[in-house]
From TrEMBL:
SUPFAM superfamilies on file: AbrB/MazE/MraZ-like
CDD domains: MraZ_C, MraZ_N
Taxonomic lineage of the native organism: Bacteria, Pseudomonadati, Pseudomonadota, Alphaproteobacteria, Sphingomonadales
Record GO terms (molecular function): DNA-binding transcription factor activity; transcription cis-regulatory region binding
Full protein name: MraZ protein
Source organism (scientific name): Edaphosphingomonas laterariae
Keywords on record: DNA-binding
Superkingdom of origin organism: Bacteria
Length: 174
């Protein structure tokens, strides 16, 4: 399936002591559209709403996407394997890469209002405490500790300015 709906924009949402946070409405809209497009003729959408969430491969944040993105991820794994020369046959190399990529993502359910729970493990990995910075990244989106974003992404001044404004609105220090 060709990805035609992308995650744009950003949001800064409160995370409570139990890890409950609201998935931004624009992101839920993208997930819904992509889910409906991925349905086979005659197939009905599941009432279960979820994203796949895992540690970002290169950045100190979480990466998330809807199930419709999984074929794209599988294709990426294949391209990655085809570009390697580690002496493994393609099937073995695919097995190892798929374990690393697909095994790193867990299902995170959310309700109709977008409420979801970031597990203690994921909050620890991304060092997310009282606030979560949701950032559209095209086919996927990221969830950051806002201060970690400011620390690691000063070369993204437009997003930095938006985040600093959101922090100020919430009464938090940038």
């Amino acid at each position: 399936m060709e990805i035609r709906d992308f995650f744009h924009g950003s949001a800064l949402n409160a995370v409570d002591a139990k890890g409950r946070v609201s998935l931004p409405a624009p992101f839920r809209t993208v997930i819904d559209r992509r889910t409906h497009r991925a349905l086979m003729p005659g197939e009905f959408p599941s009432s279960e709403k979820f994203i796949l969430l895992g540690e970002h491969e290169r950045l100190p944040c979480l990466q998330a996407f809807d199930p419709a993105y999984s074929p794209e991820l599988h294709s990426y794994v294949g391209q990655r394997v085809d570009g390697r020369d580690d002496g493994l046959d393609r099937m073995s190399a695919m097995d190892f890469e798929q374990m690393d990529v697909f095994g790193a993502y867990l299902q995170a359910n959310y309700d109709d209002a977008g409420r979801m729970v970031l597990s203690p493990m994921f909050r620890s990995i991304a060092e997310i405490e009282g606030l979560a910075f949701f950032l559209g990244a095209g086919a996927t989106f990221q969830i950051w500790n806002p201060h970690k974003f400011l620390e690691h992404c000063q070369d993204k001044p437009r997003v930095v300015r938006a985040l600093e404004f959101m922090l100020k609105e919430k009464g938090a220090k940038a």
